[in-house]
Automatic annotation (TrEMBL):
GO molecular function: antiporter activity; xenobiotic transmembrane transporter activity
GO biological process: response to antibiotic
Membrane protein topology class: Multi-pass membrane protein
Originating species: Anaerostipes hadrus
Localization terms from the record: Cell membrane
Keywords assigned: Antibiotic resistance, Cell membrane, Membrane, Transmembrane, Transmembrane helix, Transport
Main location, first listed in the record: membrane
Record carries keyword Cytoplasm: no
Family affiliation: Belongs to the multi antimicrobial extrusion (MATE) (TC 2.A.66.1) family. MepA subfamily.
Transmembrane spans: 21-38, 58-83, 95-118, 130-151, 171-190, 196-216, 236-257, 277-299, 322-344, 369-390, 397-419
Protein name: Multidrug export protein MepA
InterPro entries on file: MATE_fam, MATE_MepA-like, MATE_MepA_subfamily, MdtK-like
Annotated Gene Ontology cellular component terms: plasma membrane
Amino acid sequence: MNEQKTNPLGTEKISSLLLRFAIPSIIAMVVSALYNMVDQFFIGRSVGMLGNAATNVAFPLVITCTAIALMCGIGGAANFNLCMGQQEKEEAASFAGNAITMLFSLGVILCIITRLFLKPMMILFGATSSVLYYSLIYTGITSLGFPFLILTTGGTNLVRADGSPKFSMTCTLTGAIINTILDPTLIFGFHMGIAGAAWATVIGQVVSGIMVILYLRKFKTVKLTKEKLRPHPHYIGRIVSLGMAPFFNQVSMMVVQIVMNNVLIRYGAKSSYGSDIPLACAGIITKINMIFFAINIGISQGLQPIISYNYGARKLDRVREAYLKAAISATIISTVSFICFQLFPRQIIGIFGSESEAYFRFAEKFFRIFLFCTFINGLQPITANFFTAIGKANRGIFLSLTRQVIFLLPLMIILPIFFGIEGVMFSAPIADGFAAVCAITFAVKELKSFQKL
């Protein structure tokens, strides 16, 4: 009996496969997003608003880690599953091995670069004079965990591709639990302040990374030898090609975060709120949104092996069904998020510490306007990853750039010129609407083309 008949990706009910692969992926992505939220909570309770602003300044580097991890992890996993669907096990093993090598190597390189240029990076990312001290401490420590964070985030995609979504989830969950326990212990018990939060994060990331390494040594579906781990331009090129969509999506988020920090500081200084309130509030709100957005990313990552395998096996009806069910699920999740953001902004922001009334007024306004089109935000990542999964990297890359780079970035620069700090708020819903239209247009055209194949 051949692989195509025995592999459940090609035979099992689509809804069951989505549940099996997406739920662990969702949990892993949400837990990963909670890493920063847990730090934000305890730092807000100990250091206060300036500590939360410092984590916001450091956040572009976390996004960079995720960008590298998804480029190697999703690019490697997509190629792996496409090869498995075509019965090319040796090629599949080479893609997995090269992806692993890329993950750890790039993590070490980013750690070194960050430590060499830490202060200018923090200033570039928007640290004010009052925030710089805390950002240097927090980022200086957390940079030590970058190789393990990247290995965990990217490696779990390979673990899922190998048919072990639950273990993939367990790796991330274990690190998050350790971080959650150590945060209050180090911050309050050992009086380490923001440094305690940073060390708790690093320790959790190291444990998760070690778990991924132990799994990858005993891959189930193929044998990963030392030869498969040796970098090869052919495999690296293909991995990068299919990993560019999620990579550019994350990099664009990083660029937007940096620009937004600086715009908020500039126009916040001209408003009644000052610079530090917008910087702190926007950081918290962005990370809260990322928890809900992480659910949609989790659905798209759980969708990837199903799409790739069935597209490789030319089972296009199953590909279409999987995409539509994932898109509907993401839209439902996004709508629930929208309702929460519109109805309970003050209660949500209050979890991370009580500041002035001006702080709460800005946070409520920012929540309701900036995240107004959250209900359609799930379509872009699902559709971009769909094109990546079927090997059409260029379309996936374009869609991954629509919201952040093509629409949001120009609007974030132009609108504040005319509307002040409120212009930053209105830039997001406009960009979200245009990005959703692009995603729907591309998806409908691609799904119609399946009828001709």
